[in-house]
Specification:
The complex is a heterodimer of chains A (152) and B (144). Chain A is built from 2 helices and 12 strands. With 152 residues, chain A is mainly beta. Chain A has 2 domains: 62 residues, no CATH class; 69 residues, no CATH class. Helix content of chain B is 6%, strand content 33%. Chain B contains 1 helix and 10 strands, in the order ββββββαββββ. Classes of the chains: A mainly beta (152), B mainly beta (144).
Chain lengths: 152, 144
């Protein structure tokens, strides 16, 4: 069962705004790195999988992984507040270099790869625009998740 | 650099859902703030453009340029009636049950969302009492 108890004590890189869930598998969605945006699995209770903005079900972002996820194991998911990772860890999620761009909003990516973030707020028609957070620095994302909005 | 250490325990008027930022200018307690893209500091928000409407939280302390200021990004924020009135332009504090939005005036809040084209509707929280706002920021990725 999903452990929704709060994580006190500032265990880096998470904070009080995390919950614990089991990592599920879905198609090509398998293990994932820290910083991955995740959504609830539609087929298996109390599990999360990598999110992607190309379908409503996978656009319902529950949080950002505050630790790497391994299928079948529990991991911590941060649903609000500052999440600090290294620039390299963020680069793996954004496919950029130099970490996050301060003051810039990040959105769920619709691209071929699941579990990615992008600064683009212009997904293709039929896909979903989902705000995930705002960068406070090159290493800190303030997780701030919005509802998915389908692009006409 | 922004200190994102969480503040566990009930440090009034913030709580465990604040982080410590640097104030880029002087502003009132309760001011909705945004991350300055060009410096590691926060500035008052405004619903008139994309950058100024990216609210990261409400100031849980008064901002003094160059000084640290706690920013509350979620949860109940309790201020005095007078402090809320200074932000809303109203009298008698917040209106219980009302949703408050980032205003088109710099660093202000309003129960009336922006309506003009090109502006951004950013809900920042709901009033639970005349003195308390439950901070719950809804980002607006696109303008009206």
């Amino acid at each position: 069962m999903t452990d929704t108890s709060r994580t006190f004590g500032g265990r880096a890189p998470g904070n009080v705004n995390t919950f614990t869930s089991t990592v599920g598998s879905f198609g090509f969605s398998q293990d994932f790195p820290v910083g991955t945006p995740v959504c609830p699995s539609a087929s298996v209770s109390d599990t999360v999988i990598k999110a992607r903005g190309n379908a409503l079900a996978t656009s319902k972002v529950a949080g950002v992984a505050a630790a790497a996820g391994v299928v079948g194991d529990p991991t911590r998911i941060q649903y609000a507040g500052p999440l600090k990772l290294t620039e390299e860890e963020w680069d793996e999620i954004t496919n950029d270099t130099g970490g996050l761009v301060r003051g810039t909003p990040y959105y769920l990516s619709q691209g071929f790869g699941s579990g990615k973030l992008t600064t683009s707020n212009t997904p293709n028609s039929g896909n979903f625009l989902v705000p995930v957070g705002i960068a406070l620095s090159s290493t800190v994302l303030l997780v701030q998740i919005g509802a998915p909005v389908q692009v006409p | 650099m922004t200190d994102v250490t969480t503040r566990a325990g009930a440090n009034p008027p913030g709580n465990g859902t604040t982080y410590n930022a640097i104030a880029g200018t002087t502003f009132l307690i309760g001011t909705p703030v945004v991350q300055d893209p060009s410096t590691p500091s926060v500035l008052p928000g405004q619903a008139t453009n994309a950058v100024a409407s990216r609210v990261v939280g409400l100031a849980a302390g008064a901002g003094v340029e160059g000084g640290p200021v706690p920013v509350q990004y979620a949860g109940p924020l309790q201020l005095t009636v007078a402090q809320w009135d200074a932000l809303t332009g109203d009298t008698g504090g917040l209106i219980r049950g009302e949703l408050y939005f980032l205003d088109v005036a710099l660093g202000k809040l309003s129960v009336n969302p922006p309506v003009a084209g090109g502006q951004f509707v950013v809900a920042v929280g709901m009033a639970s009492a005349a003195t308390e706002l439950i901070v719950n920021i809804t980002p607006a990725p696109l303008p009206i």
